[in-house]
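Exercise 7 asks you to align residues with tokens for two separate proteins.
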Amino acid sequence: MNYFITAIGTDSGKSLFSAIICEALEADYWKPIQAGYPRDTDFVGGLISNLKTDLIPEKYVLDTPASPHYAAEIDKVKLKVENFDIPITDNENLIIEGAGGVLVPINDKEFVIDFPQKWGIPVILVSNLYLGSINHTLLTINELKRRGLAVKGIVFNGPSNPASEEIILKQSGYPCLLRIAEEKEINHAVVRKYAAELRNNL
């Protein structure tokens, strides 16, 4: 199964969840566009324990930590959704991590969310909980629904906020796949713990 991991914004926890779901499914991992360093592929790879997951090289690694459309302009690269195809691997499961949130532009007309729409694969939405995250999450959900994208579910990341989680789930109609607490340290054991929990919800 292929899943596209997106979020309500930058630093929401996409890479951490990508490591968790790769561990849960022993899936391969691919980040089509990396803008700036350190590389998310290295972060994910450093948290995976299983021996089956392969880390597929990015199609583009851009030097500037910025929106892909701007980072590509600086590097004199033209990004177009039509030039990206899902890699063919021997693994039946592939996790694809987007850049930033759903409406992060890759050029003047196309956005990150155009990738799963082109490929026809389901999305998993990561929502980190903070003051204002209800609004940001529901706006993201509205865009996913407007585009008719299949959404497997929502992952909440950070200190628990039951009131926020409840209203988001009620308004979206999506299931909660996982709740990732604020951990003192992120390591192999933590990732394996959440992977075991996630397997029951996929």
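Second protein for Exercise 7:
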Amino acid sequence: MPSISQLKGIIINFTQSEIKNINKYFPEGLIALDLETSGLSPLVDEIIEIAAIKVIGNKIETFETLVKPKNPIPEFTTKIHGITDEMVKDSPSIEDVLPKFLEFCGTHTLVAHNAKFDIGFIVFAMHQLKMELHKAKVYCSCKLSRKYVKGSENHKLSSLCKHFDIPLENHHRALDDTVACLRVFAKTLDEVKSNRQLKEGEILNIQDFRKANIAEAPETIQKLQEHIAKQEVIDIKYKGGSYKGKFRPIKPVALLPMPAGDVLYAHCLLTDIYKSFAIKKIQEIREHIENDSK
């Protein structure tokens, strides 16, 4: 009977209801995962910590490691997760870690909070290391919570933990956030009444990336990354959408690999919506000009 588990110093009180929900919808097993990274863009930033929890029936296994990046960890990201260059200097590289991590995961279904960011890093690293993309469904606990969790201040992991009264002592460390993601997802499943409704939390299959053209516009990516690093508003001219061929102001957030190609994830200031822009459809980038739509 599931009760309290201790995973590397973290005490996790998985309730019977949480384990029951996971086993009901994922009888073959479910893996929750979280990464800490040197930035938000898989196309240019690096993984510096990986953690995962595998649940099959009442059996719980964990995977956790720091990862030594090729480049120094930016100070602004260290302020978020607390991981320093000194902490990772003796850690294994992604070349050593990723094969072991993927062996741990197998073909089990994956879940992460804001999963497209975590999976973007994993898939891009797999492409870089020329590893075969296996078949595994990916769910997003954030996306499912937006559909079924009512009353939470917002759908950030910390807010959902507060809503569900789930402890989150070391937010932005991979294992702690993995535990939180898994418990939030399991509690959200209380509101899911069918496999059809569950599908609303599915975002992709790892194998969907097989034909993706990774880093298809390196000059555009480099230019965008400079603006992301500065956290500044820019104007882009985009081939498509309501403002086709006109400049629109955006605040770029991250560069992500997606099955249909690389995208810029950004806050569009005209529509006040966070959306994805295909890199190959960005025709021009310039510094932001107030009240200009030409």
